[in-house]
């Protein structure tokens, strides 16, 4: 019996079209697809573009109710087998749009979910945002973040062929391999037993003295 395709969702917080953030997300997703295929599995990839959900996210923050498009995006993220989360770096951290999206997701919804974090920026000096901002965010959400985080500065896109400095493809392949390994070995979700509900009258009776 052929196993069902794994569900991989790319969350991209890029604001422009075309976007280097989306480009990095696509490269990572393709690398994960190839790595999973080497293990005999297939992957269905869905991309969630946060720029298209900005108004819905803002409305949700104010009203507490998601619009249809946002609700579908949240359902895709929470129902995925794994995530690739990519943001541009603004002021040495993730973008406000990126953070707001994960703020509208229940704190327990990503518990145990494999996540690959990545970011783009104009200079390599902002690469530590992955470690001091994104990794703690997903640790708080109790996701399982792969060891290799991928940062792409402007100079990473125009490779010179120098094996010492053109490391983006190497980092993409390493991170994708780590996420693929988690995807194919992650156990199926188990059903948690529901506690028996004791009627209120029975609870009161237990409190009465003999």
TrEMBL record:
Residues annotated as domain NADPH-dependent FMN reductase-like: 7-157
PANTHER family membership: FMN REDUCTASE (NADPH)
Keyword set, alphabetical order: Flavoprotein, FMN, Oxidoreductase
Superkingdom of origin organism: Bacteria
Coiled coil: none
The keyword Flavoprotein appears for this protein: yes
Keyword Glycoprotein: no
InterPro entries, per database record: CE1759_FMN_reduct, Flavoprotein-like_sf, FMN_Rdtase-like_dom, NAD(P)H-dep_FMN_reductase
GO molecular function: oxidoreductase activity
Organism: Actinacidiphila glaucinigra
Pfam families: FMN_red (PF03358)
Name of the protein this chain belongs to: FMN reductase
């Amino acid at each position: 019996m052929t196993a069902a395709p794994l569900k991989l969702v790319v969350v991209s917080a890029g604001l422009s079209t075309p976007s280097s953030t989306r480009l990095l997300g696509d490269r990572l997703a393709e690398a994960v697809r190839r790595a999973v295929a080497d293990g005999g599995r297939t992957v269905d990839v869905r991309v969630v573009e946060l720029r298209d959900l900005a108004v819905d996210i803002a409305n949700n923050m104010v009203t507490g109710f998601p619009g249809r498009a946002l609700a579908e995006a949240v359902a895709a993220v929470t129902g995925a087998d794994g995530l690739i989360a990519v943001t541009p770096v603004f002021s040495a951290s993730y973008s406000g749009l990126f953070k707001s999206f994960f703020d509208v997701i229940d704190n327990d919804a990503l518990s145990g979910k494999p996540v690959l974090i990545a970011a783009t920026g104009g200079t390599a000096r902002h690469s530590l945002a992955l470690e001091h901002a994104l990794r703690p965010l997903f640790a708080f959400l109790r996701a399982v973040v792969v060891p290799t985080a991928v940062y792409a500065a402007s100079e990473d896109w125009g490779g010179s062929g120098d094996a010492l400095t053109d490391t983006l493809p190497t980092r993409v392949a390493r991170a994708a391999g780590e996420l693929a390994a988690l995807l194919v070995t992650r156990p199926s979700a188990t059903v948690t037993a529901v506690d028996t509900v004791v009627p209120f009258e029975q609870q009161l009776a237990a409190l009465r003295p003999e």
